[in-house]
Amino acid sequence: MPLGFLRMLATSVLVVVFAGAALAQSPYGGRAPNFYVLDVGTGQVLAEQNADIPLPPASMSKLMTLAMLFDALRDNRVQMDTTWSISQRAHEMGGSSMFLETRHRPTTEDLIRGIAIVSGNDAAVAVAEGLAGSEEAFAIMAQRRAEELGMTETSIANASGWPHPHHRMSLHDLGTLARYLVQEHAQYYHYLGETSYSWNEITQPNRVPLLGAGIGIDGLKTGHTEEAGYSLVGSARQGSRRVIFVFSGLNSPNERAEEAERIVNWAFRQFAEQQVVDAGAVVAMADVWMGAADLVPLVAVQDVNVLVPIIGAETLSARAEFSGPVAAPIIEGQELGRLVIEVDGLSPITAPLVAGQAVAQGGFVPRIRTAALVLGQQLGLIAP
């Protein structure tokens, strides 16, 4: 869709208006007191409430333990057939259990299933001790990794989500973690949607609601404690779109299942995806400092899509942000700024802008002309 240029501001910000109409947001009105809904493809936050408050994550924090294990697989520190020992501490963990015994030697794949499918506290502790030597040391490692992933409202005290006054994660952080698993560890994601698992002659179901119900839910992790209520980090895919949603504070498994279905239906039915910028499209022109050319085009690296609500009639807006003038020489493809797209009621989308062509450093005459211009502006002879 072509962009209509409105005006160039002195601050090197270009304001543009799209040729089509956007739409006013239809607010989410669910039952959960805390929620966060993210569209993975565009990165837009579709709805949120209390999403940046550190809350007890219960077993949802086992996603961090899985992330640490998947990182270890990626780095070849462990393999799928690596065997793990089971300590007395792991064996004696209460709550959800894989029913590990100290005589067992499960493989990495066994423990992945034990955490992802049946939420085994014993499996989580076994992984923590196997990766870091102790659960306490693992908590320190996981905290550092969470910070690297941009999880700013997270404090990790254990591997299982067992109630602890210093074990907290915001719903936003849990959404960030889920997106990391979906995108960076896609080869392991399917474990989070398997419907059951058997170990030690005991078969247990996956507690994630509505798996296989036909609405696209295919993972990730439930949670429940008295303090956290019934909670869920979920993800669903319909067509080319995927959403991640997190909520907490409900009163029963039935409420949790109903809320999951309500969120999925709302996220996919209340928004439509539009491509607003083509890859390679010229979005703005930036002034060049001491270059062989006076201007350089700023182009989009890739197609840019946005979600717009289906109710109402407002305007999508966008701006190209860059610091100018840009000093030569400039390399084609050099990142020079970003495109910021805003839809009423939703979080902004940003996309990189790069130089559409190379600009060599200017020769003697352009440099003299630029120096004279700067001197004239400093002396007040030329308007800046």
Descriptive report:
- By secondary structure, the protein is of the alpha+beta class.
- The protein folds into two domains: about 5-25 and about 275-380, Peptidoglycan synthesis regulatory factor (PBP3), Domain 2 (Sandwich), CATH 2.60.410.10; about 35-270, DD-peptidase/beta-lactamase superfamily (Beta-lactamase).
- About 25% of the residues lie in helices and about 30% in strands.
- It has an eight-stranded mixed beta sheet, with no helix packed on it.
- Strand 13 (about 280-290) and strand 14 (about 295-300) form a beta hairpin.
- The protein starts with a strand and ends in a 6-residue tail after the last helix.
- The relative contact order is 0.16.
Please tag this protein with its features:
384 residues; 8 helices; Peptidoglycan synthesis regulatory factor (PBP3), Domain 2; disordered N terminus; 19 strands; Beta-lactamase; alpha+beta; eight-stranded mixed sheet
